[in-house]
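Researcher: I'm preparing a figure for a lab meeting and need a structural model of a single chain. I don't have an experimental structure, so a prediction will have to do for now. The sequence is pasted below. Please return the structure as tokens so I can convert it later.
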Amino acid sequence: MRIEISFAPVAGIVTEMLAVLAADTQTEKGRDAKPLPILLTADAAVQAAAAGVLQTGEYKGGANETVLLHAPAGIAAKRLLIVGLGKLGTATMHSVREAAGTAVRFAKPRGIREVTFALPSSALPFSEGLSGATVTRAAVEGAFVGDFDADTYRSERKDQSIQTFTLAVAGTLAVPGDAERAAVEAAFAEGAIIGESQNFARSLVNEPGNKLTPTILGQRAAAMAQEVGLGWEVHSTEKLHELKMGAFWSVSQGSPEPPALIVLRYEPEGVAEGPLLGLVGKGITFDTGGISIKPADNMEKMKYDMAGGAAMLGAMRAIALLKPKVRVIAVVCAAENMPSGTAQKPGDVQTAMSGKTIEIINTDAEGRLVLADGLTYARQLGATHLIDAATLTGAISVALGRATAGAFSNDDAAYGKFESALAISGEKFWRLPLGDAYAELIKSDIGDIKNTGGRWGGASIAAEFLHEFAEDTPWIHLDIAGTAWVEEKRPFIAKGPSGIGVRSTLEWVRSY
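Model: Understood. Here is the structure written out token by token.
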């Protein structure tokens, strides 16, 4: 998708479809309170073209609600799409992100290949606290997210990608001087980097297990690193044995596919001291559950069990291109979890890289095993702060559903930075507890700890297991099992991989 930015008056832009934003200004509550939608543009011609449909009451301005007008009078666009943001008082930059994705996804199946998206006027109440640069970045990110589809291997696939997405910013700049214009143009470029990086992660998650083995994931990571200027190493079985990564190796030993230990390094010029941030990702390219095999229903989705690793690779791509002044390393532990005569068994005892011994209760609790050694290795490489992402537990979906991901941390300051990052990323995470009560449940009779601790509180138990290996290093754990895959298409995003974690991890890194 080619992206462009236009400072021309919106009504005069020649395009197949012009998308403009609307919002509901009704502040009264109650059954009798009717929506009062307004168009979020100061362009008189566009206002006039949309006036009829807004006055009928059939369009309410709800979040991602759309209405299409053909051959609108008085403007150069062939079509006018109105996209709602919901209540004016609660609209955020994430509302704009979703609206841009909605506009793109509306156009794709209708054969519309050219979309112009108009940002809201700075003179409107909506824009209080939101700069032109802020909404510019959000809109571009949303457009890229909306353009992604998961039908990669359909033989009759028709490419419905948007050819050109133009962002119209006339009226968005409060004072259209050189400084603010430069800030908007920089935000436009930044939004493209972030949107493309999220889609890079989604493209990895979307690959079937036979097309993305641990070895191939390592190759894809290396190719990306070379493209954007990251340092990289990809190791396999011999290195795992050298490092005594017994927990990581135990997961991979049941598969003929060798594991991959992927290490990426970002070292900005002039930054030799200060924090070294460690990004650790679970990269199980297919998870059968091992000897504790999963039910057949929905097992095909276990190709997305490497979404945490993909999120960290996508974040590293964005970091390399946006160049924050902080050092970052990423460690992705990739393996297949398969049942075979060589697979580990329930009751086995494995020795992790840290020296802790782990009793295997359930071989399907494998993600925490690879992350255990990944966290230890990141600390050995010098990481002063850690963040990991993993499709770790089904329990997180029971607790939070599929709308919100789980977060855990042993450090309030590190988590405070992450919480601030969420206001920018728009991703939804909810902090859940750690503590001795959960640590007690993973004590083993034969070894140091065991890899499961019973049915109740499974997400916190798994996080507390990881805490054993993060130790006292400031650390955040993201359990994205319920949100890494979009089960049903939404107006702004296709069914399939979501790419969650890329934007939030990036913003957390930039906060340092």
